[in-house]
Write a structure and sequence with these properties.
By secondary structure, this protein is an alpha/beta fold. Helix content is 37%, strand content 22%. The strands form 3 sheets. The protein has an 8-stranded mixed sheet, sandwiched between helices. Strands 4-3-6-7 form a 4-stranded antiparallel sheet, covered by helices on one side. The longest helix has 24 residues, at 3-26. It binds adenosine-5'-diphosphate, iron/sulfur cluster and magnesium ion.
Amino acid sequence: MDTQGGVLQALARQARFLTTALRRLAAGARIFQLGHRMGDPMQETEFVTMPDSGAGYPVLRVRNLKTYFDTDRGLVKSVDGVSFDIAPGETLAVVGESGSGKSVTSLSIMALLDKAHGKVVDGVMAFRSKDGRTQDLRVASEAEMRKIRGNDISMIFQEPMTSLNPVFTVGDQIAESVVLHQKLSRPAARKAAIDMLKVVGISAAEKRVDDYPHQMSGGMRQRVMVAMALSCRPTLLIADEPTTALDVTIQAQILDLMKRLQREIGMSILFITHDLGVVAEVAERVAVMYGGLIVEEGDVVSVLTRPKHPYTIGLLNSVPGARRRSGEEEGPKRLYAIPGNVPDPRNRPAGCLFAARCTHAIDACRAEMPPLLDTGGGQAARCIRWQEVAS
Ligand SMILES: Nc1ncnc2c1ncn2[C@@H]1O[C@H](COP(=O)(O)OP(=O)(O)O)[C@@H](O)[C@H]1O
Ligand code: SF4
Ligand SMILES: [Mg+2]
């Protein structure tokens, strides 16, 4: 299946999801303004909407997250006021070009920043763990974070070779995490490792369990990473570009695997990607990041079919086949890239961060930072001209 076909099919699937969501809304579910619920200790700084899934409090509520790096060349404001929620069982995709602050957001949540230089300087990351406790990960101790990383939040990175240890077999590494989290005996852990390899679709698991990482293909190694990440049945999986290094067929298999296991475990996923085509495949909601901020968010169908921010529109135009699909262009697929670069995080301009690249920019855009504006239907965009842009 090519990317164009994949996106179309996924959009059709998402349209079905939207119908269900609309039905739920019609049935009386409400869009609520986060941070304004009774007794909520976390005061909100910006307008962020989320459909009330009825499942109660979000698994993760991030408010006004700011993460800066002190470098020889100045203060790098990688993440500069990010807010979002992830509901139980939901997949939120965070999408944006390289350098927009996606990985730093996930490393901040996991407390895995390069601590010599990087620091969360502001914000709240309220996480609800399996035992029902909600705590702010920003102020959690290293011991508490180790417990959370092992039991409640798992992470998958783009390149499994950096996370897998080359000198141990994959079986030993899965067993290690199983022993740690489920307190099994060694033989039982080995059996659990074989079972996990089967679950993630590795054939001849009894044999492959003794492979070293370098004996496996990239796709297989990523399956092993998925197995390790899910061995503790986390509440939240953070997947940072998990399929970027893989070819399209293997990518689709890994995404299917993650979705299947998500249904079985009931976990939430924070899915980070630079590829809007993948967003349609995996997520219910999407947050578009630019220059350390969220510039648009909403449910996937709304954002992909009725984008309100010029940056999102530019990203959508850069999905291969997108222009051909709209009938604008015949001939071979062409990748349209947004002209210009992400602003330097050490020296961002006043006003809208996208102004230098935006064909709709006017003087008022450069005067002050646009707030995230409610554009209706649970969608929000950080653009003062969204009505003209979207029409
Ligand atoms: N350890 C670090 N030291 C200094 N700057 C960093 C560090 N990590 C990330 N950055 C900077 O923060 C910005 C956001 O990076 P990142 O979150 O990795 O982007 P993304 O994942 O969206 O591609 C970039 O400008 C990057 O150069
Ligand atoms: S606020 Fe102005 S410059 Fe920024 S995206 Fe909207 S139209 Fe473009
Ligand atoms: Mg990254």
